[in-house]
Amino acid sequence: MGLSPEVAFAQSLEERRERGAAVIRTLNNGVTQPNLERMRQEFPFLADATEAYALGDVWARPGLDNRTRQLAAVAAFAAMGLTELMNVHAGYALNIGVSEDELKEIIYMVTVPAGFPRAIAASQSLSQLFAERAEAGKDKPAGEQP
Q1: Which band of pLDDT confidence, cut at 50, 70 and 90, is reported for residue 15?
Q2: Strand, coil or helix: what is 84?
Q3: 117-141, pLDDT tens digit by residue?
Q4: Which residue intervals define the domain Carboxymuconolactone decarboxylase-like in the entry (predicted)?
Q5: How far is 138 from 89, CA to CA, in rounded Å?
Q6: According to CATH, where is 1.20.1290 located in the chain?
Q7: Are 77 and 121 in contact (CB under 8 A)?
């Protein structure tokens, strides 16, 4: 059941932040998001807004599963040329069972709306993420990691 706008506004910032923190833990193998925690040190308002609104209000909405949300985020950030953010969401996607081949297909799709330069940059960044995860032993979905 979705939240009506009145209910969402009635919730406290702390409730919304906790919902956002739960989203991160679900996507990030039970741990916090390092980029968000670093942001919290110097830009606490921005970190709180990200956690409460982007994650707690938008990301936690019903209607799409986490897999679909991650694929959409990877595509959007790749198309915008924001490869660092794309990699964060690609990592989440891999954590929840999206395959490397599926992520590659998303990058191929980016050539249509955003062009080859953005897709090539995204492919290079994604290749680096794959290599880093393989080296760290994180190249399997969360349930299959040692």
Answers
A1: very high
A2: helix
A3: 999 999 999 999 999 999 998 765 5
A4: 46-124
A5: 15
A6: 66-144
A7: no
